TrEMBL record, chain A:
Belongs to the small GTPase superfamily. Rab family. It holds the Pfam family Ras. CDD domains: Rab5_related. This is Ras-related protein Rab-31. It comes from Patella caerulea (Rayed Mediterranean limpet). Keywords: Nucleotide-binding. It comes from the Eukaryota. InterPro entries: P-loop_NTPase, Small_GTP-bd, Small_GTPase. GO terms for molecular function: GTP binding; GTPase activity.
From TrEMBL, chain B:
Residues 51-60 have a biased composition (Polar residues). Belongs to the MON1/SAND family. InterPro entries: FUZ/MON1/HPS1_longin_1, FUZ/MON1/HPS1_longin_2, FUZ/MON1/HPS1_longin_3, Mon1. Plays an important role in membrane trafficking through the secretory apparatus. Residues 1-92 are annotated as: Disordered. GO terms for biological process: protein targeting to vacuole; vesicle-mediated transport. Residues 1-11 have a biased composition (Basic and acidic residues). GO terms for cellular component: Mon1-Ccz1 complex. Residues 61-72 have a biased composition (Low complexity). Residues 112-234 form the FUZ/MON1/HPS1 first Longin domain. Residues 401-501 form the FUZ/MON1/HPS1 third Longin domain. PANTHER family: SAND PROTEIN-RELATED (PTHR13027), VACUOLAR FUSION PROTEIN MON1 HOMOLOG (PTHR13027:SF7). This is Vacuolar fusion protein MON1 homolog.
Length: 220, 512
């Protein structure tokens, strides 16, 4: 730690990673946070949480990265993970057109449900598989531009582009913070209503819980 | 093989030998349990409304000469119909396209199949083969069930040759188990119930019902994609882990003092509003469980939790935050689970289950503090030591001729058993031993004629099963043991378990 760090400002930002099943969300995150690549990444259950710290300009930035599960059954849970996110990494697989269209659904959903400003970054993963490419780089660029998102093609396997993408996102986060410090950064107290969960109401503990009764019945 | 000598004591005569052990004093008993005590098959009360099985006379080792021995008291007509259809099915099969899995010898030779399909007959899951290639056979299953259903009856089971077919219909799902092994129909039904609960654990019952109400022919595989490994793992577990059969959980053997430190670490650092359960598990064994006073965990739910942790590598990479439904606790909603490993080798897993969806960071802090305290008191070391050395060998009990046993303390819903040793070391022998336990369990719990004690002399070993108010004991002896010496041995064993009960069981339920 240098003396200069004393004067640094801290910024904590929540980054959510979204995208279809199998596009490589976990691989990208692990490559960035852990510096590794594993061929056998197990599908994520719910969401995994990572933190990554970096110093940028005069800021100590702490990224809280939520790596979400891409499976359909977790789809309705997504709001829980992207709520209050400051940045969204939107991943697709350049060899899979459907995964690119799915990103568009995610963007619509984010625009509908997130009311604080959010940095969006479109990531086309598996750029090492250029021979099997289905999503032209121009299409993706154009789309990113239309929604005001950053765009990178990356490869978790070859470790290309990932570092740059996250760094760029961090810079944008700082910019966002400087222009709008109230934009939902690092709020220690989180007590907002849970109405945006829609149909998935959180469970409420009931006074009359079946197990207790059974326990009594058993009497042994 | 068929020549078996059996002696069955019913409740009438208990010799003084057996009376020696006071039942109120069963080893591993607790007045303050943390799990819901469950009887075998208790979970099936829902499915089995009337007294189904007539006492089944056949022994497991006899060659199956029964085609329509009423395992269930369902009328013969039904079984015959079923057999007819089964025969027809066999005739039809060769005509079908070659790439159907049904025609592969490998597929046919599997000893247990589990299928899930929708009410409309859409394939959802098959343990072996690809469900896509099993559309035809699943159609037949659906036809069988709805044919019998049309007559305002329900198809529960059919027996064809040495295969048992067991059917379970729940919430728009049809589950079918086919076994050529030692499982009784009740045991297969229990396994199907576990599989059904696994579906609920992933989706919740409300979601499941809602989906099919909206679209009767929905392809549920979309919602279950990625969950197949939970089914695979669960079904494999049921073939090797007696806890699921017994409705009981195994605890990692630990000194009582260490266990107390672990439980207190959770209590001290995770006393958070809306946190319902905090538990630490390892390798299908429970280390500690802390609960809110009002709520108990059902062993069936705990098995599903263990299955979730076992079947997924994903939790090893980072702290996870995932919805999880515990069907016995509340089948209509999700709890939120904070899941993390406490050690670098990823053996000891901490789960904090809450109803508060916003508490991830609070729970993440709790986890760090719990880990810190466990390190400080060397509790993590104690856990890994206990994991590394085998739990205990049968010779530690010091009883001649006793080869293996399962002991379940009913009040705590926990069980203990020694490591498997020779001759039960090869997979074949392990399976055979488990088959013997299934047989013993089945005979004792036959609903038409439940037994208290069963002494069974088989060609390779002698079995003794004993069920009281407080415990269930299944013991396996060498083949030449007499009834008297077996009973003496079992009494000695009970005393040994009593001495060790602090180490083998969690007797105190800790609450927040």
């Amino acid at each position: 730690m240098s003396i200069g760090e004393q004067n640094m400002k801290s910024l904590e930002a929540k980054v959510v990673v979204l995208g279809s099943q199998g596009v490589g969300k976990t691989s990208v995150v692990i490559r960035y946070v852990g510096g590794m690549f594993s061929k056998a990444v197990s599908p994520t259950i719910g969401a995994s949480f990572f933190t990554y710290k970096l110093n940028l300009d005069s800021y100590r930035v702490k990224l809280q990265v939520w790596d979400t599960a891409g499976q359909e059954r977790f789809r309705s849970m997504a709001p829980m993970y992207y709520r209050k996110a400051n940045a969204a990494m939107l991943l697709y697989d350049i060899t899979c057109t459907d995964s690119f269209y799915d990103v568009k659904d995610w963007v619509k959903e984010l625009k509908k449900n997130v009311d604080t400003p959010i940095v969006m970054c479109l990531l086309g993963n598996k750029s090492d598989l250029d021979s099997g490419r289905k999503v032209p780089i121009e299409d993706a660029e154009e789309y990113a531009k239309s929604i005001g998102a950053l765009f990178y093609e990356v490869s978790a396997l070859k470790n290309t582009g990932i570092e740059d993408a996250f760094l760029h996102v961090a810079k944008e986060l700082i910019k966002l913070y400087e222009t709008n410090p109230e934009a939902g950064f690092h709020v220690p107290e989180q007590n907002t209503s849970s109405d945006i969960f829609g149909s998935n109401e959180p469970m409420k503990l009931q006074e009359t819980n079946e197990p207790v009764q059974k326990q009594k019945e058993c009497g042994c | 093989m068929s020549d078996l000598k059996e002696a069955e004591h019913q409740n009438t005569s208990e010799s003084s030998d057996q009376g020696e052990f006071l039942e109120e004093n069963a080893p591993g008993e607790s007045e303050n349990p943390m799990l819901i005590a469950s009887d075998s098959y208790e979970n099936l009360n829902y499915e089995i409304l009337d007294g189904t099985s007539t006492a089944q006379r056949q022994t497991p080792n006899t060659e199956s000469n029964e085609t329509s021995t009423g395992e269930e008291s369902n009328n013969e007509e039904q079984t015959e119909t079923a057999n007819d259809v089964a025969k027809k099915k066999q005739e039809i099969v060769p005509v079908e396209e070659d790439h159907d899995d049904v025609n592969s010898e490998h597929w046919r030779s599997q000893s247990k199949h589990i299928f899930i399909l929708s009410e409309a007959g859409k394939p959802i899951y098959s343990r072996h083969g690809s469900e896509d290639k099993l559309v035809t056979i699943m159609g037949v299953m659906q036809a069988l069930v709805s044919f019998v259903g049309d007559a305002k009856d329900s198809l529960r089971c059919m027996i064809a040759g040495d295969h048992k077919f067991v059917f379970l219909v729940r919430d728009h799902l049809l589950l079918v188990g086919v076994s050529s092994g030692m499982d009784s129909t009740h045991q297969i039904l229990l396994q199907l119930t576990y599989v059904y609960n696994q579906v609920i654990s992933v989706l919740t019952q409300s979601t499941l019902c809602k989906i099919f109400k909206q679209r009767r022919n929905y392809d549920l595989r979309r919602m279950l994609s990625g969950a197949e490994k939970f089914f695979d793992n669960l079904i494999n577990l049921m073939d090797s882990e007696p806890g699921l059969l017994l409705g009981a959980v195994r605890c990692l053997p630990l000194d009582g003092s260490v266990r107390e430190i672990i439980a207190q670490s959770i209590v001290q650092h995770a006393k958070i509003k809306d946190l319902v359960f905090g538990l630490i598990i390892t390798n299908n064994q429970l280390i500690a469980l802390v609960r809110i006073k009002k709520y108990y965990l059902h062993p069936m739910d705990l098995h599903l939790i263990m299955n979730l942790v076992n079947a997924s590598e994903s939790f090893k990479t980072a702290e996870s935050w995932t919805p999880l439904c515990l069907p016995k606790f509340d089948s209509s909603g999700f709890l939120q689970a904070h899941i993390s490993y406490l050690d670098d080798s990823c053996n000891t897993c901490l789960l904090l289950l809450t109803v508060d969806r916003e508490s991830f960071f609070t729970l993440s802090d709790c986890k760090s503090k719990i880990k810190e305290r466990l390190l400080k008191y060397n509790a993590l070391r104690a856990i890994s030591d206990s994991l590394q050395k085998t739990a205990y060998g049968i010779q530690q009990c010091g009883i001649n001729d006793l080869r293996h046993f399962l002991y379940k303390s009913k009040s705590t819903a926990q069980y203990t058993s020694p490591e498997l040793e020779a001759p039960y070391v090869t997979q074949k022998e392990k399976d055979r031993l488990f088959g013997l336990y299934k047989y013993l369990h089945h005979r004792i719990h036959t609903s038409g004629r439940p037994l208290k004690i069963l002494f069974h002399v088989g060609p390779y070993e002698t079995l003794l099963g004993w069920v009281t108010q407080g415990f269930e004991l299944y013991a396996v002896f060498g083949p030449l043991v007499t009834k008297t010496s077996a009973i003496h041995a079992v009494n000695k064993l009970l005393r040994w378990i009593k001495r060790e009960e602090d180490r083998l069981f969690i007797l105190n339920s800790v609450t927040f």
